Amino acid sequence: xxxxxxxxxxxxxxxxxxxxxxxxxxxxxxxxxxxxxxxxxxxxxxxxxxxxxxxxxxxxxxxxxxxxxxxxxxxxxxxxxxxxxxxxxxxxxxxxxxxxxxxxxxxxxxxxxxxxxxxxxxxxxxxxxxxxxxxxxxxxxxxxxxxxxxxxxxxxxxxxxxxxxxxxxxxxxxxxxxxxxxxxxxxxxxxxxxxxxxxxxxxxxxxxxxxxxxxxxxxxxxxxxxxxxxxxxxxxxxxxxxxxxxxxxxxxxxxxxxxxxxxxxxxxxxxxxxxxxxxxxxxxxxxxxxxxxxxxxxxxxxxxxxxxxxxxxxxxxxxxxxxxxxxxxxxxxxxxxxxxxxxxxxxxxxxxxxxxxxxxxxxxxxxxxxxxxxxxxxxxxxxxxxxxxxxxxxxxxxxxxxxxxxxxxxxxxxxxxxxxxxxxxxxxxxxxxxxxxxxxxxxxxxxxxxxxxxxxxxxxxxxxxxxxxxxxxxxxxxxxxxxxxxxxxxxxxxxxxxxxxxxxxxxxxxxxxxxxxxxxxxxxxxxxxxxxxxxxxxxxxxxxxxxxxxxxxxxxxxxxxxxxxxxx
Length: 568
Prior knowledge:
alpha/beta; 11-stranded mixed β-sheet; two-stranded antiparallel ribbon; 13% strand; globular
């Protein structure tokens, strides 16, 4: 019986050797052959990293050459037209069996601020949401005034920063007018009412382009609103712009150029939430929304000197957002102060009936809770061991030493707040060994565009030219190894949970590990090195954002790093 592609691929899949593991030449040989041979299977297993002996291969070949092959119909699967937003039946839950989640709910308690309208619009533009909210609620500033201020600043500074993909002027003015009318009539919705904000351009909003930062999608639109957008609209916030992101959520380069750091425009803003970081730091929006799969909120927050919160996986719905990795994507606020992050998170968190990973866990923000009840871990190595050269460049060594110096000073401040600080060491876990989970899920999310060469147009972006080939390479990951990696991942989750014990959070960061385990992290501005911001990172327990932000808020209450802003 003549061999065809469908039978060959299905047979190999039945034997545990995925079709994506096969070099094109091998498939071509099989198409011209009468049967699958031991030599074909041996070549395929080498790509898969399998080591079946000659006798085993002979028995497998006998099975594969039976009529029907016994495997799945891969061509039909690929013809199913699963779009980027189609969810997976495999739902990641980062909560270990031994962990009990809180259920008691309390009213939000935010700090009341006394503020007068600044004499200059420049000063007004850089105020945190807490202050802007007071001005709007009391009528000393209207939402329409803020909206025009931020639209003007976006247009003025975008040619330098390359942080705006599209303006939403008509929508913003309509939302601002409605906010002013409601507030004047005594229908105040809360602290985000009338506050202008910017969305990373992977959140769908009806009537706007949602480009994902990639040239193949620059004219893309959706007839749905992302849950985060809908919830912020319900809170009365005003969307003024869709902000830039690294192409397909990687880096800070997109089809409009490279988004720049407002503190040093010769430098990129980092990414992939590049536009949200740059716009928030430059006072072009009241706050912004970013996303993180592996560093895309905390990295640009550090680079641009803003306060960015990566929430727990399962805290915020991703419905209506571009998917990069189903089990790792998270959406969070990027603001000018920690309490701003708390106000935004309160508005966007919780189940929506669309994203089945979201858990109904209370977020009880209390800006005045007792700090002496917090127990904070301090990694000994990060604070006690001196930075060595280790073949690093002199500039890199100097930068790391400055960060360590700034963080040591921050630790002294934290101790002075009255919290309990105890030695802590995060377990050494080989997170890099399962880092391919991200790439494998991304290859599935962009399956059709990868196979039909739709993404090849991204090669115009130097740093992004790896994306099409990276996604193709991820198709060579065996399905069994992907599942094994997720089993090992659960062991990592349990190990981190056990290590944290009765701690509320620890000072420091392990982006690769905690993005796999789902833990929340906040990045705070914490000084400078050669004119660019450095950051302090705090990592919390699962669904422990309230305590995480409480310490961040207290730290900012006795320091002034977050009050610094760039001169453009």
